[in-house]
Every structure is written in structure tokens, then in C-alpha cells.
Specification:
With 378 residues, the chain is of the alpha/beta class. The protein folds into two domains: 105 residues, no CATH class; 232 residues, Zincin-like (2-Layer Sandwich), CATH 3.30.2010. The protein is 36% helix and 22% strand. The protein contains twelve helices and 16 strands. The strands form four sheets. The protein has a five-stranded mixed beta sheet with strand order 2-5-6-4-3, with helices on one face. The chain has a five-stranded mixed beta sheet with strand order 8-9-12-10-11. A hairpin with a 2-residue loop joins β3 and β4. It is globular and about 65 Å long. The two termini are 20 Å apart.
Length: 378
């Protein structure tokens, strides 16, 4: 988890900082779910055994500790982690508070810091709880004919196995009752899945992921127009092109297996979409990235390392090409400026003048959780 510094930003080790810079897209800027309180320098020598209030100093090992604090009349539970750091860091996620503190800081000092940030903590708890509740409303139960967002449009998932194509598979692996399959079988199932696009006439025709990306890219301007309805509204979705995904599974396939295959297919779509955009935007920035990998991070859309490795979250495939391009551009720009300095934002705006608007839209986005029918998450 990323612990951003808030009040009194502490000095950091530049060598460590430049190894990898990760940008947390899901927290409203600047790092509003995280904060920190600067402390005086730690005591040295034998002074580590006690403090000026006569309390015993905390134990040295880095341990999690469940505690509570009363803030403005409300009893708030929090998890205390002892770490090697110079500030007391606070992070709120899904209504839960985590506090990271130096090993030498007393509990009294931690309680005082929490009181100091009490109003901020309560506000963030309420905000993140509401956001988590809204995210649950986007859950998709994976089954035949379910619909999920895809490239800013909608994608209906259909189970329609071609018995001729899958007969060898059905003989080798009992897909009717299987909940998961091995890598080779999964790769074969992904290979036989395909996308169809609905024509104006109502007919369905096959199309590649790249073709769909290009079509939806042309529609992305709708999302970036300030005078249009919020993205996701019925008025805007009615202008979207719709797609369907044919999965090579029988209707009776186990929900866990369907979820496994669907996830693998969506990751393959992400791979097919992201790499060409990386190549195109890297040329515009005049940089070279070494390689890129898909990630499944819960709070980060992307990361870039000084070695030239780019990570992009595969869940971005649910969003429009305009937002995908923003994340790609953001991470490529970090290969020039490994920070969020004025120079970074100025360089990014040269390639993407409306980058700030795209960033603001992305901050409001939450990808759907894909769930099997039994309710567990993958």
C-alpha cells in the first residue's frame, strides 16, 4: 500500500524513490486518502526505552495492532503498524483507517496525531465507505447473457460452444463440471473466444479487439465534453456501440470456470489494446520503454520504473480509450520525469492537452467486480 505524505513532507531517499514511481489513480489528488504528521527526531541510545511522559516505548518489531480512538464523539477502530519511517502516516480505504508509525513513537503521540487529523479522518471514512458501497452496485455476476462495461461501451457475454471445435477439449477436460482448467486448456479457450459488433441494421458481425478500440476511440470525445451528461447515463450510453463476446463454453458450464475464462479473455483484450497505444504514445514523447506487464492492483492504474518497465492495470479495459490513453501517457511521461513535479505536468500536457480532464474523469471511475454466482470474488 502506498503511504503518501501530507503535512510536513518528510525528506526521502532519492535513490530508493527513483527505483520505481507508482501513481495511485484511485485516490483524489493530492493523495487525499492518505496523510502524515511530522514528528521530532527520534530519541537516541538509551532514551528509546522511555519518553518524556514516562511511558514505556513501543516494542521494536513491526507488528499490526488493532486499536480504537474517539474522534469528535465517535469511536473509530484503526490498525496500527510499526514501521521504519519518520512520520505518522494515515490511510483510509473503504471506511477503514490504517496508521503507520515509527517504532520509537509513543501511543500518546499517535493518539494526539489522530486527534489533530480527526476531522479529515472522519470525512475520509464517510467518503470511502460511500465509494465502496457505490462500487458494489457495479458487481457483475458472471453467467450467460450478463453485461459488463468494455472499452467505454457495453459487452454481453454469451456461452455458445461450437461442439465441433470443442469436442477434443470436452474429451480431455470435463468442462461440464470443472471449476477451473489448466493453462494450456485455458489458452485454447481464450483463442476460440471472439467479439461481435452490432451493425446499424441490427445484424452482428465479427470484429477484432483493435477494430473495436478504434471505433470506441472515435466516441471517446463524448466523455470528454463538459456539456454532455455524466458518462454512464442513459443518454450517453444510447450513443454507444454495443458488443457481445462469444465464449466457447456450454450453457451448463460452472460459474467459476466461466469467470476464469472471461477474466483470461479480458486480460488478452487488455494486452491487445495497451501495447499499440504504448508504442504510439512513446513515439510522441520521444521515449523508449523496455517492456510492459499487466497488473491486477486494487488501487493503482499503472506504474513506471526507471528501468523502463511499465505496469498497466488490466481492469482499464472496462474504460474508454480516452482514459486508457491517459494512463499510458501518464506512465510514459514518468520515464522522463520520475515525479509529479511542474515539469512532469507540463510535459504531459504537451502530448495530451486535456490530460487534467481525463484524470478527473478517471478518478470517478470504478471497474466492476466480476463475481461467480456463488458470490465469491476471483
Amino acid at each position: 500500500m502506498k503511504w503518501a505524505e501530507g503535512l510536513g513532507v518528510r525528506a526521502f531517499d532519492h535513490r530508493q524513490h527513483f527505483l520505481q514511481l507508482v501513481f495511485d489513480f484511485l485516490a483524489p489528488e493530492p493523495s487525499s486518502h492518505s496523510s502524515a504528521v511530522t514528528l521530532h527526531s527520534p530519541p537516541s541510545g538509551n532514551q528509546l526505552t522511555s519518553n518524556d511522559l514516562g511511558e514505556a516505548a513501543p516494542k521494536q518489531p513491526s507488528l499490526k495492532d488493532a486499536r480504537t480512538v474517539e474522534l469528535q464523539g465517535q469511536k473509530i477502530a484503526y490498525e496500527l503498524l510499526r514501521r521504519k519511517r519518520k512520520t505518522i502516516g494515515m490511510h483510509v480505504s473503504e471506511g477503514k483507517l490504517k496508521v503507520a508509525a515509527p517504532k520509537w513513537v509513543s501511543l500518546t503521540q499517535i493518539q494526539q496525531a489522530l486527534q489533530e487529523k480527526g476531522a479529515w479522518i472522519l470525512k475520509q471514512i464517510e467518503h470511502t465507505r460511500a465509494k465502496a458501497l457505490a462500487a458494489k452496485e457495479k458487481d457483475v455476476r458472471v453467467q450467460h447473457a450478463c453485461v459488463l462495461p468494455w472499452l467505454g461501451s457495453s459487452l454481453q457475454v454469451l456461452l455458445q460452444a461450437d461442439s465441433g471445435t470443442l469436442e477434443p477439449l470436452l474429451a480431455k477436460a470435463s468442462l461440464m463440471g470443472a471449476t477451473h482448467v489448466g493453462a494450456k486448456t485455458l489458452a485454447l479457450l481464450v483463442e476460440h473466444a471472439f467479439i461481435e459488433r452490432q451493425m446499424e441494421s441490427g445484424a452482428w458481425v465479427r470484429c477484432s479487439v483493435q477494430e473495436a478500440f478504434e471505433r470506441e476511440s472515435a466516441l471517446s470525445h463524448l466523455e470528454l465534453c463538459a456539456d454532455t451528461p455524466p458518462f454512464g447515463s442513459d443518454a450517453l450510453l444510447s450513443a454507444q456501440t454495443h458488443y457481445r463476446l462469444q465464449l466457447p463454453l456450454v450453457l451448463e458450464a460452472h460459474s467459476e470456470l466461466t469467470l476464469q475464462v472471461l477474466t483470461a479473455v479480458l486480460k488478452a483484450h487488455a494486452q491487445a489494446c495497451f501495447e499499440p497505444r504504448l508504442d504510439l504514445l512513446a513515439a510522441r514523447f520521444g521515449v523508449n520503454y523496455k517492456r510492459f506487464k499487466l497488473s491486477a492492483a486494487k488501487t493503482r492504474w499503472g506504474s513506471a520504473s526507471q528501468s523502463g518497465l511499465i505496469h498497466l492495470n488490466w481492469h482499464l479495459v472496462h474504460f474508454s480509450p480516452a482514459l486508457i490513453d491517459y494512463v499510458v501517457a501518464h506512465e510514459l511521461c514518468h520515464l522522463i520525469h520520475m515525479d509529479h513535479s511542474e515539469q512532469f505536468w507540463a510535459r504531459l500536457s504537451l502530448v495530451m492537452p486535456d490530460g487534467l480532464l481525463r484524470r478527473q474523469i478517471l478518478h470517478r471511475k470504478t471497474p466492476p467486480r466480476l463475481l461467480p454466482l456463488d458470490g465469491s470474488t476471483l
